[in-house]
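Milestone M4 deliverable, item 7.
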Amino acid sequence: MDTLVTKDLTLGYGDEVVIDDLDITIPKGEISVFIGGNGCGKSTLLRSLARLLKPQQGDVVLNGEDIAKVPTKEVAKQLAILPQSPTSPEGLTVEDLVKQGRHPYKKMFKRWSDEDEKAVHEALDATNMNTLKDRSVDSLSGGQRQRAWIAMTLAQGTDTILLDEPTTYLDMSHQIEILDLLFELNEERGSTIVMVLHDLNLACRYAHHIVAIKDKKVYAQGKPEEIINCGLVHDVFQMKCDVMYDPMFGTPMCIPHGRGRCLIKEAVEESRQQQTGS
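Output delivered:
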């Protein structure tokens, strides 16, 4: 069964419509990535999927139920969201942050249980954060901090995790570290992962399913190898490019046109000058 489905979904702020009459399906047990130009509504859509933004029209269906009609704590047991650049109170330890993921299971006067303890330790293990559990979150590197937040979402015990630009502000090695972690969670646990990413090549490498958004609607959705081409990149990002296959992964790889230094042109010019000089 599909995990998340939108039906005739319209989203906006006041009179401004950001997403208009949108129908998408998020496949269960796969990694889905939203792509599109700045301001196209990717993050707004993600917030709506997590019931953080009420639709102006239409529905979000989670595991067969209208998410608007499901109690908040019940939604939090099925779906976790990690917003862009989350912040924590100063001095909060990694372990205490991860424990916050158990909040949906707390009831009045209910004590911390063995099940809660197990969920926290499993989340720390899965993210390789056990050795850092006593460190304050604000003392961690960017990649470590992001892993700590992902551990918190894992402790929440949901089958579906939504992440808004989880690699923003991270250097290249930490971007790959976080995306590899999410890939492993999908492979080993069958987690349904939904992300907003700006790097099209990384989106193609890690996603099973891509949703491209343009002009408030879905421009295309499907497997990266089926939908990513020069026409899509031109229409969605207003950018000319060549698309070839990544020689290591076999996934689409976008090479944008631009005015950067071109080694091929330099080599041709050098050869021409040598021939002229001789």
